[in-house]
């Protein structure tokens, strides 16, 4: 097991390097000029050239990349062109907010998704199965930003029960776990949880349904095993795949949702990414994409290790 | 598209709902369209919104805009300079008297040397306080300035590169930040950003990047009648229009900038006040005057101007526009008396186009650069599609080249001759026209073609050059206004642009907001406002 973990950890390095090259190249291929955001529209070519030199954007791309990589190894993601603030600080603040949202959404989505999926799979083809399947399909089909807007209309505008936007009455800097702040979290977290509920429920339903029809389950019943004990075996067999799906969903949630964070003006990594894209803020874009990509890589790594722990066949392969 | 449909669906049954209850008591919370708090160190970024909310609140210029009137375009008034004059013998030499007794928010006293320090901040890259970010915003605003010095504590001298009577307008762009505060913050502009100090009517007390800025009144403001009445002003970036509207409807903010036109009736139905007023904003197509461009033919330019149904366009925008009668809004003191009437007359347009050799049987094909969104662009896609239909009706077929706003700015700087515009013969780009340079000169002066400036269409006309020389050499304000009227008359009489609309800067305000009078300016005065 230890060798397996080490092997998987080492594999992260080339992935991270590949991600850094791809994200650097992608943001440079896109049309537009990062200096546009910080220069008056009437800036002359001379002023633009001076500014380009000041930000090192006049150097060849490979040189820019090496500088960026060198700074990255020292933990420096550079400064945002649009704001002048350190990228690491900007990303860290945003990631904390997205993390809060993602963990809350996960706490809602995964237990509900697992429970619904398991019930539907256990009572396959019953009315309960049909109900859960309908909920799951609705979950993955309804555009979540639309759902978010509708929830805002109902609960913030019409009923005035919950706030429509923001991460707290004093902004996300002053986050504390009190009702004044938690009420800001409810609508975006529910909205964000809807898709994972649907995906996890559908996956688990299919898994549980299939496993219950496998020969070994018949054999367990034939040996006189109780329903509960059979259930444990089914859950263990379904766990690896379910975990894989949950891991991917967790990665997606941690990455933040541009649309949901925009609808709720939630100052997370999705909104930061959106702003960076529109402002062509290359250092911020590179830094944010890299950090988010690392979330995915880490989530996958954790899932792989957990899968190996649950299912010895994976470890052996 | 989906967001639009969702909005319609979601709001359809809500006309009878009552507004959310704002919690503020003496606090005005404003939802801006910007996605971040504009640069707070002095010379703000984020265009007009930056100057409006950070520039003219925390800071002053030597010469300010008069924001007290709603019935005429804002003019210049003394700011940190009480008076100024140009030397009779040497028209490049200006003397400014600096207002006495003005205190920065940090307690230091304003002197002429501080103004010199601020010019160095923008123009002198050898100065320790030189700030590339502020320079990027301010340097191009003061092209006339050649040198400057403090004669004594209260007297400043500015030398211009050549006689230039537009200098006072240029100086109204330049915000004055505190040298003492920069020193106190360890000579770090990043630290100043969190603790800025100007001389303006508002002091910034809290700053959370991308989330909010809080200000309280500067009770020692030198212009006592303009000491704010509110307890606090909170600025919140809310770039997404629906999030902005929802924040207002749910009572989380008291004021939003630029409500979507299709939501205005619903907001009014719920008791929210929609304010609007003319201001120096222009929505036009700039036309290529390169060899081979069809827009070189004055008849075609006039035909296009007569083909656009501006009243119909106004209906499309829910009345939130002023139909263009020229390049300047009709109420502008620079409007003059042009002989060509900009109006909707498709028959006359078709006749002119026929005279130029085009019509239904020999259609003119043109290519136009447009953007799907952007600062000040209003609703560019539906508006341009409307114009496309109007022009098609008389025989002009428009092919659009649609580029994202950031790239549009680059193409605006690149000019019509640059390969990046891919042969486009016009560009729909909007901007401020509040002073002679940004309003007239930069668009058509011969030597301001790319890379020297933004004469996008490469227009060059000796009569116009002469008029610009007159503007710069006419130091008497009334006589200068007369010259500018002549310039505008030439703009309109020769139909140098496809003149379409002027924005009216709509704002949606909670009924609790009292005392706001929308000035005909990009900047606004928040001092008289109270919250009930």
From TrEMBL, chain A:
The UniProt record lists the keyword Transmembrane: yes
First-listed, main subcellular location of the protein, grouped into a coarse class: membrane
Gene3D superfamilies (UniProt xref): MetI-like (1.10.3720.10)
Record's keyword annotation contains Membrane: yes
Subcellular location: Cell membrane
One Gene Ontology molecular-function label: dipeptide transmembrane transporter activity
Record key words, sorted: Cell membrane, Membrane, Transmembrane, Transmembrane helix, Transport
Pfam families for the chain: BPD_transp_1 (PF00528), BPD_transp_1_N (PF19300)
Membrane-related topology note: Multi-pass membrane protein
Taxonomy, superkingdom: Bacteria
Any one annotated GO CC term: plasma membrane
Domain ABC transmembrane type-1: 95-307
The name this protein goes by in its record: ABC transporter permease subunit
TrEMBL record, chain B:
Every Solute-binding protein family domain range: 76-423
Annotated source species: Paracoccus aestuariivivens
Family (UniProt): Belongs to the bacterial solute-binding protein 5 family.
Keywords: Signal
Entry-linked CDD domains: PBP2_NikA_DppA_OppA_like_8
InterPro entries reported for this sequence: Peptide/Ni-bd, SBP_5, SBP_5_dom
Name under which the protein is recorded: ABC transporter substrate-binding protein
GO biological process, one term: peptide transport
GO molecular function: peptide transmembrane transporter activity
Main localisation: periplasm
Taxonomic lineage of the native organism: Bacteria, Pseudomonadati, Pseudomonadota, Alphaproteobacteria, Rhodobacterales
């Amino acid at each position: 097991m230890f060798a397996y973990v080490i092997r998987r950890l080492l594999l992260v390095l080339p992935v991270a390097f590949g991600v850094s090259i791809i994200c650097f190249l992608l943001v440079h291929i896109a049309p537009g000029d990062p200096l546009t955001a910080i220069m008056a529209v009437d800036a002359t070519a001379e002023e633009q050239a001076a500014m380009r030199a000041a930000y090192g954007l006049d150097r060849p791309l490979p040189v820019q990349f090496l500088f960026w990589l060198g700074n990255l190894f020292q933990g420096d993601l550079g400064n945002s062109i649009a704001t002048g603030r350190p990228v690491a600080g900007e990303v860290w603040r945003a990631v904390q907010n997205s993390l809060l949202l993602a963990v809350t959404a996960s706490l809602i989505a995964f237990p509900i998704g697992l429970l619904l999926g398991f019930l539907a799979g256990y009572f396959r083809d019953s009315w309960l199965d049909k109900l859960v399947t309908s909920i799951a399909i609705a979950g993955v089909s309804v555009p979540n930003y639309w759902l978010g807007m509708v929830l805002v209309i109902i609960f913030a505008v019409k009923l005035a029960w919950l706030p429509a936007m923001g991460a707290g009455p004093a902004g996300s800097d002053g986050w504390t776990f009190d009702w004044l702040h938690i009420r800001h979290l409810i609508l975006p977290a529910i909205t964000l949880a809807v898709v994972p509920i649907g995906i996890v429920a559908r996956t688990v339903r299919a898994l549980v349904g299939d496993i219950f029809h496998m020969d070994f389950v018949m054999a367990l019943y034939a040996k006189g095993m109780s329903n509960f004990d059979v259930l444990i075996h089914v859950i263990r067999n379904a766990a690896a795949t379910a975990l894989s799906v949950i891991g991917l969903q967790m990665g997606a949630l941690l990455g933040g949702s541009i649309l949901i964070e925009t609808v709720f003006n939630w100052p997370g990594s999705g909104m930061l990414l959106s702003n960076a894209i529109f402002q062509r803020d290359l250092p911020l874009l590179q830094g944010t994409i890299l950090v988010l990509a690392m979330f995915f890589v880490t989530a996958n790594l954790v899932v792989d290790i957990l899968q190996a722990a649950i299912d010895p066949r994976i470890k052996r392969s | 598209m989906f967001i639009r449909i969702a909005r319609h669906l979601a709001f359809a049954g809500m006309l009878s709902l009552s507004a959310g209850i704002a919690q503020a008591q003496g606090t005005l919370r404003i939802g801006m369209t910007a996605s971040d708090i504009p640069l707070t160190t002095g010379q703000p970024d984020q265009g007009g919104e930056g100057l409006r909310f950070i520039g003219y609140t925390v800071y002053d210029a030597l010469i300010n805009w008069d924001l007290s009137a709603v019935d005429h375009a804002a003019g210049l008034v003394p700011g940190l300079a009480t008076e100024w004059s140009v030397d009779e013998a040497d028209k490049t030499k200006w003397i400014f008297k600096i207002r006495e007794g003005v205190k920065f928010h940090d307690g230091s006293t304003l002197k002429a040397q501080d103004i010199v320090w601020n010019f160095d901040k923008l123009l002198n890259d050898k100065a320790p306080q030189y700030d590339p970010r502020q320079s990027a915003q301010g340097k191009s605003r003061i092209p006339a300035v050649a040198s400057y010095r403090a004669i004594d504590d209260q007297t400043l001298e500015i030398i211009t590169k050549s006689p230039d009577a537009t200098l006072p307008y240029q100086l109204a762009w330049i915000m004055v930040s505190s040298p003492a505060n920069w020193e106190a913050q360890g000579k770090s502009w990043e630290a100043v950003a969190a603790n800025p100090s100007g001389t303006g009517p508002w002091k910034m007390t809290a700053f959370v990047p991308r989330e909010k800025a809080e200000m309280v009144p500067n009770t020692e403001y030198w212009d006592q009648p303009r000491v704010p009445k509110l307890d606090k002003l909170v600025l919140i970036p809310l770039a997404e229009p629906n999030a902005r509207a929802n924040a207002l409807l749910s009572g989380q903010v008291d004021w939003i900038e630029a409500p979507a036109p299709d939501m205005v009736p619903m907001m009014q139905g719920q008791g929210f006040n929609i304010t609007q007023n003319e201001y120096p904003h222009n929505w036009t197509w700039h036309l290529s005057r390169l060899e081979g461009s069809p827009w070189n033919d004055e008849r075609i330019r006039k035909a296009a101007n007569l083909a656009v149904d501006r009243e119909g366009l106004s209906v499309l925008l829910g009345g939130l526009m002023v139909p263009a009668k020229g390049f300047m809004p009709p109420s502008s003191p620079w409007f003059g008396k042009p002989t060509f009437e900009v109006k909707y007359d498709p028959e006359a347009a078709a006749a002119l186009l026929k005279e130029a050799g085009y019509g239904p049987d020999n259609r003119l094909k043109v290519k136009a650069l447009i953007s799907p969104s952007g600062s000040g662009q209003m609703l560019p896609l539906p508006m341009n599609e409307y114009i496309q239909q109007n022009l098609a009706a008389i025989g002009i077929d428009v092919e659009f080249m649609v580029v994202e706003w950031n790239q549009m700015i680059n193409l605006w700087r690149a000019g019509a001759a640059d390969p990046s515009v891919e042969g486009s013969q016009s560009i729909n780009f909007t901007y401020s026209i509040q002073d002679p340079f940004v309003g007239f000169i930069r668009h058509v002066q011969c030597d301001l073609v790319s890379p020297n400036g933004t004469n996008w269409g490469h227009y060059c006309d000796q009569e116009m050059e002469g008029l610009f020389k007159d503007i710069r050499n006419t130091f008497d304000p009334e006589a200068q206004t007369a010259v500018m009227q002549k310039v505008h008359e030439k703009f309109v009489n020769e139909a140098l642009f496809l003149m379409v609309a002027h924005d009216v800067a709509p704002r949606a305000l909670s009924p609790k907001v009292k005392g706001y009078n929308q000035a005909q300016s990009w900047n606004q005065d928040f001092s008289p406002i109270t919250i009930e």
